[in-house]
Amino acid sequence: MEKFTTLSGIAAPMPLVNIDTDMIIPKQFLKTIKRSGLGVNLFDEMRYTQDGAEIPDFVLNKPAYRNAQILVAGDNFGCGSSREHAPWALLDFGIRAVISTSYADIFYNNCFKNGILPIVLKPEEVDVLMKDAEKGANARIEVDLAAQTVTSSDGQVFSFEVDSHKKHCLINGLDDIGLTMEKAASIDAFESRASAQRPWV
Amino acid sequence: MSPKTLYDKIWDAHVAHEAEDGTCLLYIDRHLVHEVTSPQAFEGLRMAGRKVHAPDKTIAVPDHNVPTTLDRANAKTMTEDSRIQVEALDKNAKDFGIHYYPVSDVRQGIVHIVGPEQGWTLPGMTVVCGDSHTATHGAFGALAHGIGTSEVEHVLATQTLIQKKSKNMKVEITGKLRPGVTAKDITLSVIGATGTAGGTGYVIEYMGEAIRDLSMEGRMTVCNMAIEGGARAGIIAPDEKTYAYCMGRPHAPKGAQWEAALTWWKTLYSDDDAHWDKVVTLKGEDIAPVVTWGTSPEDVLPITGVVPAASDFTGGKVEAAQRSLDYMGLKPGQKLSDIQIDTVFIGSCTNGRIEDLRAAAAILKGKKKKDGLRAMVVPGSGLVRAQAEEEGLAQIFIDAGFEWRLAGCSMCLAMNPDQLSPGERCAATSNRNFEGRQGRGGRTHLMSPAMAAAAAITGHLTDVREMM
Ligand code: SF4
């Protein structure tokens, strides 16, 4: 997994609430058995017409936002299914951070497994950054994971909370499975205890 | 000992390791696997030279892609990419030695229906699956939730999940339901009351007389949609109905082990003075048969209501509501019962069990669907289908003009050929009405099986109580 330390990038505004995983990556693109290549289909049904032409009004089709690395979105971003194809598609497009007031639980976890930082800020702070993002390509937003801050293009600094374990893994690009396997002895011990107590499991 | 919730008790019984910051390794008793969210996980194992840690606790079944038409044994009924995914699962199940129900097996069906049916899901277990509707299994008093593909790989490799504990939320449904009101109306009404983000960060325990009165099938319907309310999981304490459902299932314990299991299961309830971080109470008597009007499951109203206006909402919801109204092609003030439909879909892990088919058949018996309407019933598993045939339900559906399908997810998410075309409007018993969920441009109204059956007869959204 790619490390995440700091990011300075263009942010695309998506003020809609409840942006769900079916919008982020519609199900016809879940039939892949790979993780890569989904970026062209990110937000497919909002981004293209039925015959595949770009919809010019959609934010990521506007010249200013074609290279966006950050999304600023409405409440409850990523609700819906568990599909990890949603963060895979975001990542493949080039999005490394999302800013919103809240996320669906599974999507939130999935982001961390793929080097994407989902940032939770207060509604009034997201409002400021949404306006900032609307300024287009000249307004770069800065994210510093170590310091846990987001800085708007005009220098306003907002702090965010992040779980210490998740932060550690993201900053160092660590693979969870490797870390857990170091605790194999605890898992083995648990299994012996559990099979004595609940042999039917 | 300090009082605990049911969630606390199951959690405590499964912590294999706890770090100083409270991050836990939670041991997983059952890992369910389907073809869409697992190929990259198995690939990851192969690349790292890892094995499945506990193949005997890992159960796989293809469901999302498989065609549900009667000719599906013919490989040509599947698109190439679908076939590749199903074949990948066939191969992964074999290579890694996990339990498997292939498409040709009568026990095949939607993973959340097969698990309980085969006795894999039992009280007090931790159950995960790369699918958000894993919450369904909470109906047994199991801690069950969806995970992403990286986590699927993590569970395959270690049989654990890195977790931090959620908060506890109690949702109590007091009193009795009125006639014509079902588990689906409960669960949709709860989401209507709390919003789709209302449960974020919580595990919900459903309790109260109306919940206890539900069958296991009804309880699964309620827990299935906990995720639509944003909760990590929904859970219901096990009781006599739970034990009766589990007893004798192929993978349920037998003899002395059954007795030992029962002794533990009987301790699985929330203590009287347990702490709740949030409490929501609805009166069973106040719940009406409901339908959704918009493109979020929280857009729910009693069937007697009218389509709202965007200006009825506040904040970010105003724009979302307007977008929903445009997408759904509805006008504010229009009576919900005047909305004409093109298609009826009865099935899914929310409402594809035998009781759901009985409820729909009870309304359809001796009647016909409206002319020109497309209607299909997709049983949740091959065994549900067989039982419905034995009980004569299949014939009622066929006589009413419904297609009688084989088991799978089907039009719930339209990954197989069953899809809505743009603008087509569907009365569906599934759980998501998102834009494009049932096919690009398709319009979904969620409701109970009885309500969907009523709509099939009249051709518009209908208050099922008028037919009872
Ligand atoms: S029936 Fe629908 S919600 Fe259930 S597992 Fe299948 S696709 Fe998901």
- SS elements, strand count of chain A: 7
Global morphology of chain A: globular
Distance between the termini of chain A: 34 Å
Tell me the strand order in the biggest sheet of chain B. Answer: 5-4-3-6-7
Q: Number of helical segments of chain A?
A: 8
pLDDT averaged residue by residue of chain A: 95
Structural class of chain A, by secondary structure, is alpha/beta
User: From the structure provided, what is the oligomeric state, counting identical versus distinct chains?
Assistant: heterodimer
CATH class of chain A: Alpha Beta
User: H/E series of chain A, N to C?
Assistant: EHHEHEHEHEEEHHH
Which stretches of chain B are low in confidence, meaning pLDDT under 50 for 5 or more residues running?
none
Largest sheet of chain B: 5 strands, parallel
Beta-strand percent range of chain B: 15-25%
> CATH fold name of chain A, please?
Aconitase, domain 4
Strand content of chain A: 15-25%
Give the second-level CATH assignment, the architecture of chain A. Answer: Alpha-Beta Barrel
Mean pLDDT across the residues of chain B is 96
The coarse silhouette of chain B is globular
Structural account:
Helices cover 32% and strands 16% of the residues of chain A. Chain A has one domain: Aconitase, domain 4, CATH 3.20.19. The mean pLDDT of chain A is 95. A seven-stranded mixed β-sheet of chain A has the order 4-3-2-1-5-6-7. Chain A has eight helices and seven strands; from the N terminus they run E-H-H-E-H-E-H-E-H-E-E-E-H-H-H. The longest helix of chain A has 14 residues, at 184-197. In chain A, strand 2, helix 3 (85-93) and strand 3 form a beta-alpha-beta unit. Chain B starts with 5 loop residues before the first helix and ends in a 10-residue tail after the last helix. Chain B is an alpha/beta fold and 468 residues long. In chain B, helix 2 (39-48) crosses helix 5 (149-158) and helix 13 packs across helix 15 (393-399). At the A-B interface, helix 4, helix 7 and helix 8 of A face helix 2, helix 3, helix 5, helix 10 and helix 11 of B.
